[in-house]
Amino acid sequence: MVLASGMRTLQGIYAMLQLRPNCECCARDLPPESPHAMICSFECTFCLDCAEGVLKGRCPNCGGELVARPRRPPDRLVPNIRSSRDVIVRTEHWPEAVRFYGHVLGFTVSSRAEAMVGFETGAFRLYVEAGPAHAPVFDFLAADVAATKAHLISAGCTLVEEDPNLPRCYLRDPFGVVFNVGRAPGSTG
Ligand SMILES: [Zn+2]
Ligand SMILES: [Zn+2]
């Protein structure tokens, strides 16, 4: 994947070893504490069985050797949070706001629900929701919303509102900015 390898390069420069959650070959779970994770220098990730068996110790993507991935101590785990393209505003003057974004700014409607209309604006999607007004909220996604919420609250965020059924929650960071944390597509947490 072109995008993923671009991100990988940036992360290699600026951040830490990527701990991918699954074996690329058999999809088996490989959590950060797993002693069975094997990686190549590009962090392609396989389970020990696949690495030693079908792959014979070589990464099928780059041809490099596969070595044991170091385990990350549980107290040093950082959730993998990424933004979506969604920005949400909420207003009690909803029909007027929908008309405003659709007609005055000329954005195309991309989705329509009972109390929310989504507009395609270009780089991000704007969701205009009916309800008690709040300023624009941008959207972060994580595999495990509850764990990410706990992590952020322990780091000084406060809970603004939440819907555990979706799940999603609005958190205010220690500097006053409110953002949503929702569930990343494809995750079950
Ligand atoms: Zn495997
Ligand atoms: Zn590789």
Describe this structure in words.
The chain is an alpha+beta fold and 189 residues long. It has two domains: 2-74, Herpes Virus-1, CATH 3.30.40; 82-183, 2,3-Dihydroxybiphenyl 1,2-Dioxygenase, domain 1, CATH 3.10.180.10. 21% of the residues lie in helices and 32% in strands. The protein contains four helices and eleven strands. It has helices at 2-14, 48-52, 94-104, 145-154, and strands at residues 37-39, 45-47, 67-68, 82-91, 108-113, 116-120, 125-130, 134-142, 158-163, 168-172, 178-183. It has an eight-stranded mixed beta sheet. β9 and β10 form a beta hairpin. The model is unreliable at 1-14 (pLDDT under 50). Bound molecules: zinc ion (2 copies). One zinc ion (ZN) binds next to β2 and α2.
Reported CATH architecture of the largest domain = Roll
Structural class: alpha+beta
Ligand list: zinc ion
> H/E series, N to C?
HEEHEEHEEEEHEEE
Helical percent range?
A: 10-25%
Using brief descriptors, characterize the structure shown:
Herpes Virus-1; 2,3-Dihydroxybiphenyl 1,2-Dioxygenase, domain 1; eight-stranded mixed β-sheet; alpha+beta; 21% helix; 4 helices; binds zinc ion; three-stranded antiparallel β-sheet
